[in-house]
Write a structure and sequence with these properties.
The chain has helices at about 1-20, 25-40, 45-60, 65-80, 85-100, 105-115. With about 120 residues, the chain is mainly alpha-helical. It has one domain (about 1-115): Serine Threonine Protein Phosphatase 5, Tetratricopeptide repeat (Alpha Horseshoe). It is globular.
């Protein structure tokens, strides 16, 4: 699994560099979100937080609510890994509100996570 995460991280780093070079902020945000997820799974939590927070800001700026919710859900998992259940709950409740507002199927998964 670790080798797959390393490969994914390398590809996402290349994607991020290309998006930055071309000034494509939305693609930067997608790549940053992916890197945040990879780094979280690798246990590199502070690095993951940086990528996720940055992508959240861009998705909000672009009005991409479904991606905002996905990042909030990821931030909840990150906060759980960091041992902060209150911050995780806050992120999950924000994600859940958006998923429900948009009538997205992810709402059920987030509801289950936030009720633990």
């Amino acid at each position: 699994m670790q080798g797959c995460l390393e490969d994914a991280g390398s590809c996402l780093e290349q994607s991020l560099a290309l998006a930055r070079a071309t000034g494509d902020h939305a693609s930067e945000a997608y790549a940053s979100y992916g890197l945040g997820e990879v780094r979280r799974q690798q246990g590199r939590l502070e690095e993951a937080a940086g990528y996720l927070e940055w992508s959240l800001a861009v998705f909000r700026q672009c009005g991409l609510r479904q991606w905002e919710a996905r990042v909030l859900y990821s931030l909840g998992r990150l906060e759980t890994a960091k041992g902060d259940p209150a911050a995780a709950s806050s992120a999950w409740h924000s994600a859940l509100a958006i998923f429900r507002e948009l009538d997205m199927p992810e709402a059920a998964e987030v509801a289950a996570a936030s009720s633990r």
